[in-house]
Amino acid sequence: MAGSSHGHTPAAWTGVTIAFIGFCVSGAFMVMAQPVGFWVGMAIAVVGGIVGWIMSAMGMGQPKDAHQTFQDALEKSQAAVSAKS
C-alpha cells in the first residue's frame, strides 16, 4: 500500500489519530480494571472512524480515482527508467 499513497490524507491521519487515542485510553482502563473507562475509550475509537469518514466526505480524503491515476504515473516512470537502462 505504500506504493499507492493509501492513507496520506488529512481525513486518514485525523481518524487514525483519534482512534489510536481511544485504544490507548481503553488499554489503560483495562489494566486498571475500570470497565466504564474501557468503554469510553472504545467510544473514542469509534468517533475516530466517524470523524475520518465525515472528513473524507467533505473532500479531505483521497479521491476515488486517485489509485488508478497513481498507478498510471508509476508505470510511466518505471517505463522511462527501463528505457534509460
Task: Describe the overall structure.
Pfam families: DUF6704. The chain crosses the membrane at residues 12-32, 38-58. Keywords: Membrane, Transmembrane, Transmembrane helix. The chain is mainly α. It is 79% helix and 0% strand. The protein contains three helices and no strands. Helix 1 runs antiparallel to helix 2 (35-60). The two termini are 27 Å apart.
CA-CA gap between termini:
27 Å
Shape: elongated
Q: Which blocks of ≥5 consecutive residues have pLDDT under 50?
A: none
Number of strands: 0
Structural classification: mainly alpha
The biggest beta sheet reads: none
Can you give the helix content as a percent range? over 70%
Instruction: Round the mean pLDDT to the nearest integer and report it.
Output: 84
What portion of the residues fall into strands of 2 or more residues?
under 5%
Cα Rg: 19 Å
Annotation field: number of helices:
3
H/E element string? Answer: HHH
Write the SSE topology.
Blueprint (H helix, E strand, L loop, with lengths): L9 H22 L3 H26 L5 H19 L1
Helix pairs in contact: 1-2
Tag the structure with descriptive keywords.
elongated, 85 residues
Question: Would you summarize the structure shown here?
Answer:
It holds the Pfam family DUF6704. The protein is mainly alpha-helical and 85 residues long. 79% of the residues lie in helices and 0% in strands.
